[in-house]
Write a structure and sequence with these properties.
4 domains; about 25% strand; about 325 residues; elongated; four-stranded antiparallel β-sheet; 14 strands
């Protein structure tokens, strides 16, 4: 079976996408040379002009710079350079993508620009303090978890934890976790699956990059969230995806910290009191170490005023922290 002949028009499109941009327009002669070099095709100026007109008629944004030698380049693309830069920076900063997966994704993104733009995107340094994970199966784990959510099926998996010597071992001697997955959530640059476990009778979360291998999708249907359990609300109350007893707390804050409260709890946060220097909000949170750590960051500018049980836990944590000093 003979191969189909190359479409010259499509080859012209490929050349313009790869080698042209606003600062690197191509003359007809340059396009002709690239056609011959890249695809072994010959073309004349007249036929090439018709190819460009045909591509423009099909909606390709080809900009023509008129001069003694007309020059052409791709105008608008699927992603503009600032958009690609933003996505590439996000990939660099992601704590759930391994170095290998990060590079593969960045290669795909830069291929959407011209070779000249792609070079600039890669040359611009980005300094981050991000530690990348080593679990190369993460793509397949995320895909499997999402398929289980779509199918409404439970998943089974083993979970990793670190030893003092920095090696990873299976948690609880290789225990198999059964989870009814409800959603995948991005929190603190990590990817989590949130769901219900019958063992703990609670909504909980697992970091995707610490799932040991691709989960098994079982034939068992997911258990619906118990009445009053809302996965979306869970994401608002949990700090760093660290579970704990749920409580409605009141926080007294300095007025200049309203932006901080809104960033953390949203614009619909309930303000129950305010004066010239402070305001008080009522929010639902999980009483976990990360929540108390978040409070401590503000050095008394955010005070926990109720309930007593939450205050008592805070005092106990402070006493424990100074016990051996």
């Amino acid at each position: 079976m003979s191969e189909l002949p190359l479409s010259r028009t499509l080859c012209v499109l490929k050349i313009l996408e790869q080698y042209s941009d606003e600062t690197h327009p191509l003359t007809l002669q340059q396009i002709i040379a690239l056609l011959r070099e890249q695809y072994g095709l010959n073309a004349h100026r007249t036929t090439l002009t018709k190819d460009i007109e045909e591509l423009s008629a099909y909606g390709v944004d080809i900009v023509k710079q008129q001069s003694t030698q007309n020059r052409y380049f791709i105008g608008s693309r699927v992603f503009e350079i600032p958009e690609l830069r933003l996505l590439i920076d996000a990939i660099h900063s992601s704590k759930c993508l391994t170095p290998k997966k990060s590079e593969e994704l960045i290669d795909k993104l830069t291929s959407l620009a011209s070779v000249h733009q792609g070079k600039r995107l890669r040359e611009r340094p980005l300094y981050t303090m991000v530690t990348k994970p080593k679990n190369e199966q993460i793509y397949y784990i995320i895909d499997t978890v999402n398929r289980a959510i779509e199918l409404g099926k439970q998943i089974r998996f083993q979970y990793l934890e670190y030893q003092p010597d920095k090696t990873t071992v299976l948690r609880n001697d290789g225990e198999i976790y059964a989870l009814s997955p409800y959603a995948c959530m991005w929190n603190g640059d990590y990817y989590y699956v949130v769901g219900w476990t019958e063992k703990h009778r609670a909504l909980t979360s697992f970091r995707v990059d610490r799932i040991a291998s691709v989960p098994e999708i079982t034939d068992v249907s997911i258990l619906p969230p118990p009445k009053g359990v809302d996965p979306e609300e869970y994401s608002k109350t949990v700090f760093q995806m660290y579970s704990g007893p749920l409580a409605t707390v009141q926080l007294q804050c300095r007025n200049d910290l309203m932006k901080t409260i809104i960033d953390r709890f949203g614009e619909d946060v309930e303000v129950i009191d305010h004066d010239e220097t402070h305001f008080t909000v009522s929010v639902k949170v999980m009483l976990s170490p990360p929540f108390y750590g978040w409070l401590f960051e503000f050095g008394g500018k955010i005070r926990l005023v109720s309930p007593d049980i939450a205050i008592d836990i805070y005092k106990q944590m402070m006493e424990s922290a100074f016990a051996d000093l």
